[in-house]
Amino acid sequence: NAGVTQTPKFRVLKTGQSMTLLCAQDMNHEYMYWYRQDPGMGLRLIHYSVGEGTTAKGEVPDGYNVSRLKKQNFLLGLESAAPSQTSVYFCASSSARDRTLQETQYFGPGTRLLVL
Amino acid sequence: QKEVEQDPGPLSVPEGAIVSLNCTYSNSAFQYFMWYRQYSRKGPELLMYTYSSGNKEDGRFTAQVDKSSKYISLFIRDSQPSDSATYLCAMVVGGSNYKLTFGKGTLLTVNP
């Protein structure tokens, strides 16, 4: 099993450009999450999904959109990138089957995004 | 006041030392507590999970929860250079709320 994979690993954007980050998991997990990690700020939840076709806002959703058309994929979109969105983005997934599994989030390796 | 407070360090110890990492929290509704370990340029991975007050041991690692004081700790015995990483505490309310609230992480370096 590959677990959680993220593409791309690194990207440089100019202000105003758009891009999509792809997250894929092969563990048949119901829940998926997008976080950003910034120095001194820790991990902050951007958006999450509890199942195919459903998404919800997290702590810092502004400037981002998401879609979950397939259970195994969770896409994070930046419509008009800003320097404040320079960060490391992590995707995670977890199972809905029981309490312990729900809280065990499996993280991808991250995408480093630099917005100039 | 942040819901979860964690000293970012950095913390530097010699090999073999006992390490204590701590988090405090303000939301008394938190029921489940976790420690994640994150190596440099990697994603976090779950290290310890507990849902009750008291201690839980796993090899050289002990997680401690004191709900009355809203305080959790992670102890590492006989620390090794391979333990050098950022340690993040995380907690969740429970029930239908499965969103984790993370501490900012403590950077630990274990020197050979």
Overview of the molecule:
The complex is a heterodimer of chains A (116) and B (112). Chain A contains one helix and eleven strands. The longest helix of chain A is centred in the last third of the chain and has 5 residues, at 99-103. Helices cover 4% and strands 53% of the residues of chain A. Chain A has 116 residues and is mainly beta. In chain A, the strands form two sheets. In chain A, strands 2, 4, 5, 6, 9, 10 and 11 form a seven-stranded mixed beta sheet that branches. A four-stranded antiparallel beta sheet of chain A has the order 1-3-8-7, with no helix packed on it. With 112 residues, chain B is mostly beta strands. Helix content of chain B is 0%, strand content 54%. Chain B has strands at residues 4-6, 11-14, 19-25, 32-38, 45-50, 54-58, 61-66, 71-76, 85-92, 101-102, 106-111. In chain B, strands 2, 4, 5, 9, 10 and 11 form a six-stranded mixed beta sheet that branches. Chain B has a five-stranded antiparallel beta sheet with strand order 1-3-8-7-6, with no helix packed on it. Chain B is globular. Chain B starts with a strand and ends with a strand. Classes of the chains: A mainly beta (116), B mainly beta (112).
> What oligomeric state do the depicted chains represent?
heterodimer
- Mean pLDDT of chain A equals 92
Apparent shape of chain B:
globular
Largest sheet of chain A: 7 strands, mixed
Backbone structural class of chain B: mainly beta
Distance between the first and last residues' Cα of chain B:
37 Å
Beta-strand content estimate of chain B: over 45%
**Helix fraction of chain A?**
under 10%
Number of strands of chain B: 11
Total helices of chain B: the number is 0
Q: Give the strand content of chain A.
A: over 45%
Number of helices of chain A: 1
Q: Would you tell me the structural class of the helices and strands of chain A? A: mainly beta
